[in-house]
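Handout, page 2. Input:
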Amino acid sequence: MSLSVLSVLPTPTRALRPETLKRPETFQHARVSSHRVKVSRKLSVRVHARGPYEGPGVAPSRNVLGGDLQCCCAEVRDTGIGTGFFRDGFCSTGPTDEGRHTVCIECTTEFLSFCTAVGNDLSTAIPQYEFPGLMSGDQWCLCAQRFAQALQYGQAPKVYLRSTHEGTLKYVDLEDLKAHAIDLEEAEAEVARLDALRASLRASICETPVDSPEE
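Output:
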């Protein structure tokens, strides 16, 4: 589908735009690896490397493969800004993340043009929301519904499965994500590793002797 056709498509009634983000109050005092720090642009890169945001209502982050969620992008082009709703570099989510920013993508010029055509400009920076404006090659946590929309029109970007939150599967099938995966080989190796661990655990449980009751 050409962008000239996309340009006349109606904007979704509930547009998931960067400027509509409702940042959680707890973001200003995010708990990272059991240390409370006041998050600032100066500290962001050092903080992001420690792990995903932890807070009320935020479950331990898992990826679509069932493993630990990997970092998507701790800093976009030396801006000091990490991706993710919590700007922690991870596509983690929680109750305050209404847009579900859970899909780790790699931007292309074509995808950014598509977003602009459907009323979701991701190329323009919005400093007040720590949004750097995206360029081709940038990695970013995209809203799951936006990815589903792009998929519908044949404009879906490439994704990193190991950095895509499991919550994405409520909107997009795993097979569709795999079809656009950059890290498919590494992801399949991760699945094989997890399967081996599960098999080993089941075997150890079955081999555990059961004590006979005393007579």
